[in-house]
């Protein structure tokens, strides 16, 4: 009897280690349904006193457990996993799976599909392989969709050799690779810049009777772009792929099972990371946009213009995404005037610029500030406001931090960003507010200015909250003692 109770005690102690320290206190354990008990041997000697175990014998404890429990059966757990998957919080997948194990709920094939696809979207390769191994341990044979997801996850995490190992394992189990299996391998080779392995995959596709589509050509372009060293041959090869891709299909025509998960995989493999904004949905532009992005990252403005001309000759309308890549290329070369000129011509043609185009150009204007850049940034911000675009907290904070570095002029660009954020009642980061506050003081704004009063209130509130004071901070007595705070922030802003 005593030996059995000791085993239960040690098991409960291992479970309690999963809880943080505040939850292991006596007052908090009662909320978790944990009660104290003592274990004694047959002779009456107390072996362990004050040990705790989880029990739900009483009605009060069961009610408390029901109030904080989110799932009781496999259907409720699958629903919770789908919500986590849709909200892209893949870091919670492992916790939910451990809760299933504690509750004794047996996962199904759909459960592992949700777990693996969710972790694939979050680039959590370790969790993907863990769930993949758990599925095989339980006797569930993965299908081709799951193998495609695992290969894609390995490629996104730059584990190319592992991706090919998973593909070989799939074939060893007698599962025939599909078109998207080869596409996932091509994308993995493109991420690592392995051109030879990519063409090896193309030859295997031809042996299986499969043809290349626009997504495959995009992966090959990515492979050439990421291959080192970059030379003139890289540009010629990308243009050759553009010519070869004319007339190819926009996607795979073969039907595969589980369309819901395949669409999730297709968005990641075929164009998910090729689209700068959600507005880009034209799959016919996939190869062209892959080339545009490749040339923009290589800093070749001439090649970007050539691709845009090819788009126009093919009868396609040049959209804002293509213009954004050309603007990025001009900004990278330090030619902001041409970038602004390209933007103005695009707007004068009657086309609508996207928010991503505005943000890209404004960020370029706020680098290495001068009078022309500040005036252009302010004009673009006013156009954004007129068209109904707005800044979120992260982008607004970054732009305000950059604009606050202005040492000459009227400081109107930073004021415009501040007014746009205040109009929507959005909270800025303390770094941006501090930079803006220093800029207002540097430009000697009157003390009764409304902006200065509002910024000073935010700065004072944060100083009281975090116990920050302006000026140099006292240095600890022992400079070598890191734990005593010898390295403190001397200038809060």
TrEMBL record:
Domain PROP1-like PPR: 95-241
Compositionally biased intervals (Basic and acidic residues): 476-493
UniProt keyword terms in alphabetical order: Repeat
Annotated spans, Disordered: 467-493
Repeat recorded as keyword: yes
UniProt entry tagged with the keyword Repeat: yes
InterPro entries per the UniProt record, alphabetical: PPR_rpt (IPR002885), PROP1-like_PPR_dom (IPR033443), TPR-like_helical_dom_sf (IPR011990)
Top-rank taxon, per record: Eukaryota
PPR repeat residue numbers: 108-142, 143-177, 178-212, 319-353
Protein name: PROP1-like PPR domain-containing protein
């Amino acid at each position: 009897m005593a030996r059995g109770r000791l085993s239960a005690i040690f098991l409960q102690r291992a479970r309690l280690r999963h809880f943080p320290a505040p939850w292991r206190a006596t007052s908090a354990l009662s909320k978790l349904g944990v009660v104290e008990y003592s274990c004694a041997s047959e002779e009456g000697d107390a072996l362990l006193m004050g040990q705790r175990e989880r029990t739900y014998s009483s009605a009060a404890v069961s009610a408390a457990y029901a109030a904080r429990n989110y799932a009781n059966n496999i259907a409720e757990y699958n629903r919770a996993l789908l919500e986590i998957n849709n909200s892209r919080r893949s870091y919670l997948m492992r916790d939910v799976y451990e809760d299933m194990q504690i509750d004794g709920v047996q996962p199904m094939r759909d459960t592992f599909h949700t777990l693996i696809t969710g972790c694939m979207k979050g680039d959590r390769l370790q969790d993907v392989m863990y769930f993949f191994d758990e599925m095989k341990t339980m006797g569930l044979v993965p299908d081709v969709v799951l193998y495609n997801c695992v290969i894609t996850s390995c490629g996104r995490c730059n584990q190319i050799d592992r991706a090919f190992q998973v593909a070989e394992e799939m074939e060893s189990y007698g599962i025939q690779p599909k078109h998207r299996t080869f596409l996932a391998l091509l994308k993995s080779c493109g991420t690592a810049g392995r051109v030879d392995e990519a063409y090896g995959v193309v030859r295997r596709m031809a042996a299986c009777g499969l043809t290349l589509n626009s997504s495959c050509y995009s992966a090959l372009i990515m492979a050439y772009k990421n291959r080192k060293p970059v030379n003139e041959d890289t540009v010629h090869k990308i243009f050759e792929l553009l010519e070869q891709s004319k007339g190819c299909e926009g996607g795979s025509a073969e039907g595969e099972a589980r369309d819901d998960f395949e669409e999730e995989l297709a968005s990641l493999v075929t164009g998910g990371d090729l689209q700068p904004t959600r507005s880009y949905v034209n799959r016919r532009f996939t190869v062209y946009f892959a080339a545009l992005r490749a040339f923009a990252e290589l800093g070749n403005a001439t090649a970007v213009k050539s691709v845009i001309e090819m788009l126009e000759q093919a009868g396609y309308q040049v959209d804002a995404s293509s213009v954004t890549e050309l603007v990025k290329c001009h900004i990278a070369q330090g030619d902001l005037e041409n970038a602004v000129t390209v933007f103005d011509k695009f707007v004068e043609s009657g086309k609508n610029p996207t928010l991503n185009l505005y943000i890209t150009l404004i960020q370029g204007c706020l680098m290495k500030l001068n009078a022309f850049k500040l005036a252009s940034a302010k004009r673009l911000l006013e156009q954004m406001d007129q068209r109904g675009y707005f800044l979120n907290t992260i982008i607004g904070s970054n732009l305000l931090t950059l604009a606050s570095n202005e040492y000459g002029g009227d400081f109107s660009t930073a004021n415009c960003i501040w007014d746009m954020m205040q109009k929507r009642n959005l909270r800025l980061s303390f770094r941006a507010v501090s930079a803006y506050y220093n800029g207002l003081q540097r430009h000697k704004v009157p003390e009764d200015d409304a902006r200065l009063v509002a910024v000073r209130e935010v700065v004072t509130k944060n100083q009281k909250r975090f116990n920050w004071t302006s000026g140099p901070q006292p240095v600890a007595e022992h400079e070598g003692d890191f734990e005593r705070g010898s390295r403190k922030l001397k200038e809060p802003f």
